[in-house]
Methylmalonyl-CoA mutase, coenzyme B12-dependent alpha subunit (Streptomyces clavuligerus), 683 residues
Amino acid sequence: MSHRPKDRPWLMRTYAGHSTAEASNELYRRNLAKGQTGLSVAFDLPTQTGYDPDHVLARGEVGRVGVPVAHLGDMRRLFQDIPLERMNTSMTINATAMWLLALYQVVAEEQGADIALLQGTTQNDIVKEYLSRGTHVFPPGPSLRLTTDMIAYTVRHIPKWNPINICSYHLQEAGATPVQEISYAMCTAIAVLDAVRDSGQVPKERFGEVVARISFFVNAGVRFIEEMCKMRAFGRIWDRITRERYGIEDPRQRRFRYGVQVNSLGLTEAQPENNVQRIVLEMLAVTLSKDARARAVQLPAWNEALGLPRPWDQQWSLRIQQVLAHESDLLEYDDIFAGSHVVEAEVGSLVTRCLDEIERIEEMGGALAAVESGYLKARLVSSHAERRARIEAGEEKIVGVNIFESTEPNPLTADLDAAIMTVDGRVEAGVVEAVTRWRAERQESADRQGGGDPFVFPTVRQALERLKDAAAGEENLMDATLECVRAGVTTGEWAGALREVFGEFRAPTGVSSAPVAVAAAPGTPLAAVRAKTARTATDLGVGRLRLLVGKPGLDGHSNGAEQIAVRARDAGFEVVYQGIRLTPEQIVSAALAEDVHCVGLSILSGSHGALVPDVLERLRAAGAAELPVVVGGIIPGADAEALRAAGVAAVFTPKDFGITEIISRIVDEIRTANQLDPLEVSP
């Protein structure tokens, strides 16, 4: 056996958080006891988008995809008995990143920690939110200011903290090619660094410290060689940009530092046991090459395409990392790909193509201008549509989905309802009650303080007024945010005050400008669906069928909705798609105003149980009970049955990967709802 010295393993994390702060704290402590070496906090959608649990848009979303944190009390409970001074914590938070960092800092101070020793990361990449994840709140300019202020503050006060994680992970999930993933992430980094430099908040001689704290969060897909070469290209381009554009001479400050979550997009509902080997291959792409190895790795669980993983599923993913790091000889060798002419050629090609795309975006005015013009979103929607078309045509093969589909009964999913974790619907009511109680108790405390010095004991109102004054001016917003935390302000109140000053932003959908990805030439499946769509419109006496694609609640994962909208458009529908974050009331109003023939709802956050019945009830109350409603998302079998029993015409889940077939079935549901005979049109 070799006695070579081994490199230090990467940070091992699992992305976790659900239901309540207390339940999530228990999960974190159990995971740390199992050998996890860092925390990765998943926040629920109301927290991510700046709403309190009792806001109308938070209905059905509380505690679903992460932990709800509405105020300082929640943050205390989330990290109870976890010494933050000795912890490395990653928080997946963007629009409200400043707020969550302020909460984290105050909890650390209450623990007696030296905040200068705090280590961790706030994702804080707002650009990709406009393009893929959809948890943005404010317009690009104010969002960039929040990021800039956080970076300047951490350099001065929390120097070991990574204030931003440039996140290309969701770009790949939205369809980005390796060139797009690298280029868009680098353009985001340029926009952020330029803003910090131009703000004047960091002295020129300390700008290297800013660059050194910029980290990245990437996606590793199953194309092993391509992904490994992508990471090497990332590092080379970052080194070049930081040296040539910003004059950073210290190679340690130019180091490309990244964490990774391996691809969840490629996980399948069909034969989900195959997801385990996919996860392993994807992890190898970011660990096997020493010169491009991730500093932190978190793996999804095998059953994430089915629903929320259980603690045991997360443990399995942690053990995958531990076996690789501690049982294999991976960490004993220098880079085993150094000198490979195949790798060098691929990396060189990626670097050249990425630099060309970066230059193209910079000529447009940079990343923010390319977001506002819709260029970046349209490119992503287009590339995702092309990928889906390749899968449907069988050109891109996915085992268990479009090849080798026959399978033995799966003991892992024999009881599907027990194979995933579900959040008790009563949790939301408890969280809503708790935030109401928090507001009442802080008011009682403020009343008891009486005429105390407002600068020592600011009231909630005073803290929020100071925040708004700071936002309207030019001072760094972190101090005013910390004052809000200590005064007992809630997440929704903090974000609401900034909404008053900054306004809100609805990002371009990219649907209208996306090119046709699937041909409708005679004899093709799409041509057949186009004929069926046209025939049905004629039978109904209308020019075109109209489909409303709606995203109720706070779920910002819009990739599926966008692909349905694009394919329906290409099949001859008039598509009404207003983007993400709508209430059931708004969706029903739009359906009635546009006189649509079908409503399609897309929900991936697990809130379908509350939001879909609300839409159905509002349609019935408006006298439109006959209007067919179809639903798509990660929906367990029992939930799908309940939705159909409630009146949903059809439920689509990830196993329904054929988008053209989905559109055909939507036409069938329109014919059934209008008492038209079934219509089969051959390609």
User: Anything to note?
Assistant: Confidence is low (pLDDT under 50) at residues 451-457.
